[in-house]
Design brief:
Number of strands: 7
Low-confidence stretches: 1-8
Mean pLDDT: 90
Radius of gyration: 17 Å
Number of helices: 6
Length: 177
Amino acid sequence: MPRDLAEPRSRTPLLRKPDATDGADIWALVKSCKPLDENSMYANLIQADHFRDTCVVAELDGEIVGWISGHIIPAKNELFVWQVAVSAKARGLGLGKLMLAELIERDACDEADHLKTTITKDNAASWGLFRSFARSIGGELSDEPHFESDAHFGGQHDTEHMVTISLPSPGALARAA
């Protein structure tokens, strides 16, 4: 039976942990979100399978429109966010901040006292997202050059700045909400 065209489509994304079957859709989303670096489809499958507790998928009308990949840095109480991807179909919904908030509230991130990510100086969208997120949780944001163009990328990629955001304790987050 055809769908009633008068029925409104949902504008509230479903946020969830990914699973291995999401790998191909995640890869396609990342590929469509320039200037994000494309990883192999296999890398996204491994992230969705092995690191699902520290990754987020956002669905809108059954389609993956958002993705955060992250992991807890070994031997540290720090959550590293590798990529944030938001489809053009879901822009303007505040989805990046929603996914970050979802992620830091997970049990797997309870011990994290800092969120870290790397951003090139010219990526205005990422700077805006992480600055806005830091303000929204009352966190302090700092940055410094980390992976340098010549030393780490052989001059083939811009310097990545390590961005560090202090995270409130899980109890403080609950009280702020």
